[in-house]
Write a structure and sequence with these properties.
Blueprint (H helix, E strand, L loop, with lengths): L1 E9 L8 E3 L2 E4 L3 E2 L12 H6 L9 E5 H9 L13 E4 L11 E4 L3 E8 L5 H5 L3 H4 L1 E3 L5 E3 L3 E7 L1 E3 L4 E5 L12
Parallel strand pairs: 5-6
Antiparallel strand pairs: 1-2, 1-6, 1-13, 3-4, 3-12, 5-11, 7-8, 7-13, 8-11, 9-10
């Protein structure tokens, strides 16, 4: 399975949206250089309050461009970086990948998917009704979180729009993504 990078974004301060960039640099074990969420331990303020020594499983946030298209069709104005993602992808079913999937991006960057982003009410602060729009239910009634996936950086490198993304599934048994 392969896809591509549509856009890259980062935010040096803890704000909801991130600014689109021409390129970002991923740093092994840390995240996006210059991003407020970069670090070995948690940087999300709510998680820091609980335990600031937890490992940072949310170094890089990825969202599929197909979600942006779905949200636009529902009347929302959403662009890359608007809902806090660092990398916007196309052509990969991010939400359907198992935990531990490796993404090889561009020439050198390597990420490992750690889990799902749990949509929060900050989405409604950005645009009313957005939280509900990124939540759904499957055929069995279970909640489906559509706000992207979180990852850690295994190998650093520069990422630019247009970079190819190669997906490498982990060994079986595959574990479904859960919120991190």
């Amino acid at each position: 399975m392969t896809g591509s990078v549509v856009a890259v974004s980062r935010g040096p301060r803890h704000k909801f949206s991130k600014s689109p960039e021409m390129r970002i640099r991923l740093l092994a074990g840390l995240g996006v250089e210059g991003d407020a969420h970069m670090g070995e331990t948690v940087k999300h303020r709510s998680r820091v309050r609980v335990d600031p020594t937890q490992p940072n499983l949310r170094q890089v946030h990825l969202v599929h461009a197909e979600l942006h298209a779905e949200l636009k069709a529902a009347g929302f104005k959403v662009h890359p970086g608007d809902i806090g993602e660092n990398i916007t992808t196309r052509g990969i079913d991010l939400l359907g990948l198992p935990t531990g999937t490796v993404l090889r991006i561009g020439a050198t960057a390597v990420l490992r998917i750690t889990g799902l982003r749990n949509p929060c009410t900050q989405l409604d602060g950005f645009q009313q009704g957005l939280t509900a729009a990124v939540l759904d239910r499957d055929a069995e009634g279970r909640i489906v979180r559509k706000a992207g996936v979180m990852s850690v950086v295994l190998e650093g490198g520069e990422v630019i729009p247009g970079d190819p993304i190669k997906v490498e599934l982990p060994l079986e048994p595959h574990l479904p993504l859960a919120p991190v």
